[in-house]
Each structure stands twice: as structure tokens, then as C-alpha cells.
Amino acid sequence: MAIGTVAAIASLVVAAWIELGVAGLPRIPPVPVVYPNNFAGPHGFPLWVRYCHFFNFLFVTLLIRSGLSILADHPRLYFNDDCTPGSEWIRFTPIEVPRDRLWTAKDDARYLSPLIGTPGYRHTIGIARVWHFIDVHGFILCGLYFVSMLFVTDQWKRLVPTSPTVVLQAWNTWVHYATLHLPQEPNGFYGYNALQQIAYFSVVFVFGPLAILTGIAMSPAVVNHFSWYARMFGGRQSARSIHFLTMLSFLAFLIVHITLVVMTGFARNMNHIVLGTDDQSHLGVWLGFVGIGVVVLCWIAAHYSSWYKPRAFQTGMPAACTFGSKPAARRPQAM
Predict the structure, then answer these.
(1) What's the CA gap between 298 and 292, in Å, rounded?
(2) Residue 330 lies in a domain
(3) Which among 135, 150, 148, 323 has a CA at the least distance from the CA of 247?
(4) CA 324/CA 220 separation, integer angstroms
(5) How many CA atoms lie within 13 A of 253 on its CB side?
(6) What's the count of helices (H) and strands (E) in the chain, helices before strands?
(7) d(CA 92, CA 74)
């Protein structure tokens, strides 16, 4: 599967170079001249967009970090529920399951640096799951609010393609990017090119819901009550693999997104998403770095509380751990 994904991306790049060699660079619509005082369409970044952008970044990074700690406890992914040794499509461990002795999940767990995962280290799947369940509530609420506001306002027109020609324009734009002929970038304050629009649409309306739905399919409580649900994704282990691929999609989007933000006018782009203004001042840059610092401090606080305040997770957050299942009965105290 991993090889197939890489091969699919490579084939798109090769196809772009073939088109360049045979037909030359395809035409893409010129970036229209914008007159801010007379621009009638949806534009700008309202306060609710900017807040959702920040909190979504916070929750997605925490979900990725805790998800990596969960993955490290069993660093193998399958498209079958049998999970027989050797049937995984990818593994993140150099160790093959030995066939001449007993091998348990504790043997299979790998060390993960706390710089990468929350809480990191080894055998921390319990607390990692608690953080994952806590963060996903914020991720879902933030997403629901964002999508609701999109359609309450006319901001949805910036993200949702309304014409099939967008697909052709997106491919033509891809050919430019893939062959290192960077096209002129539109001012994101007023609109996106076709490829950017499809990318944003996919993140909001495909990757986000798919991550949530496959996450639910891994819940033993859900599968025990609704066995058909996990089968929609090919089983719990297939859902886990799709969940992982969705995480890679988010990571790929983040890398490309940040790269283009830096390359196409860093100060101006930061002012867009931090201050909601369209100018070249550096205030948005500095405030943006402060926001990133706050996110990193949240990572550190999560790590610290995991290791030095573990009792808080046992007593203060039981709902996150038992979501969808019956709470364990209390043991009666001896008289």
C-alpha cells in the first residue's frame, strides 16, 4: 500500500513532465487584477476563520502527536482483521515477529521520542489514548463550527468548487508546480487558484470527516454494538490503516501549505490569517510566532501533565477513556 501510494504520486509527476514535453505548459487563467474597494465577492478572513485556523492547528498537531504514540505501541498496519505475522502492509519496526517463541504486544512496542509524540517513550498507549480522545472533541467541535459558519456566510464559495472546469484547471496548475514552473499566485485574501481550492475542500470535507469516521470504526464499543459499521471500511484494522493514511494526508497538506505561505509572501499571508488584513506589515508574523509558541507550550504541558500528574487522568477525565462503553463497577470497600 505504501509503495502504491508513492507510485501514484510519482505517476502524477511523470504525467506532468510528459505533458510538458509533448504539449508544453498548459494554459491557466491569469490572476485577475483586484480592486479592493470594488471587490464584490467573498473575501478576507473573518475573526471566526482565524480562530478556527488556530485551534484546528492546535488540535490536529496534538492528535498527530498522540496518534504516533498509539501507533508506536503496535507499529504494524493491516488490511485484514486476522493480523497474522507477516500480513502487515507496512511496519515501523525493524523487528520481524519471531516464530520460535511467544511474542506479545509489549514486546512489539517501540520507543518514541517525546519530541515527536505525546507522551512519547514506550508503553504509554493508555495516556496517549486519553489525549487523543480529549483532542478529538475539540477537533470535531471546531470543525462543526467552521463548516456551519461557512454556509451561514458566503465564505463557502471560496472553498467549494462550483464548476467541473475547476478539475481541469487544477490539473493544469499541478503541471506547473510538478515541473517547477511556479505559476503566479493569486492574492489569497480574495481567492485561490483551482488546485488550492480543491486542496482546501479536500481537507475540510474529505480528510476531516474520514479521520473521524475511521476513528469511530476502531472503537470496540461501537463495533460490538454495530458490527456493520467497521465492515464499511473493511474491518477495524483496515479502518486503522485508512486513519493512518488520513494523518499522512494532513501532514502532506501542512508541509505544502506552510511552504507556499513562506514562498508567496510570508508577511502578507501571515497578516491575512492572523490579523485579517491585506498589507505587508510584520505584526502578523510576530503574533503568528507567538501563536506557534502557545501551541508548542501546549505540547510541553501535555507531556508534563502526562508524566507528573497522571492521577488527574485517572480521576478527572474518566469520560474520555470510557466513551461509548459502560463504566467499570466500583469494588465495594471492606467493612
Answers:
(1) 10
(2) no
(3) 135
(4) 9
(5) 22
(6) 15, 2
(7) 9
Evaluate whether 140 touches 212 at the Cβ level (below 8 Å).
yes
Distance (Å, whole) CA 119 – CA 113: 9
C-alpha cell at 52: 478556527
Q: Which of 31-35, 230-234, 306-310 has the highest mean pLDDT?
A: 230-234
* Helix, strand, coil percent content, the chain, rounded in steps of 5: 65, 0, 35
Q: Domain count for the chain, please give it.
A: 1
78 CB-near residues (< 8 Å, 6+ apart): 87, 88, 89, 237, 238, 240, 241
> pLDDT tens for residues 182-227?
888 888 899 899 999 999 999 999 999 999 999 999 998 898 999 8
Residue 142 lies in a domain: yes
Q: At what angle do helices 266-274 and 283-308 cross, to 10 degrees?
A: 70
Are β-strands 76-77 and 90-91 bridged in parallel, bridged antiparallel, or unpaired?
antiparallel
Write the single-letter amino acid at 43: H
Answer yes or no: is 3 within a domain: no
For 162, the domain range is: 50-93+100-321
Query: Which of these ranges, 5-14, 68-77, 278-287, has the smallest mean pLDDT?
Result: 5-14
In a domain, 13, yes or no: no
Residue 77's beta-bridge partner residues? 90
Contact of 57 with 273, CB cutoff 8 Å: no
User: At 189, which CATH number?
Assistant: 1.20.950
Q: Distance between CA 217 and CA 229 in Å, rounded?
A: 6
138: its cell numbers: 475539540
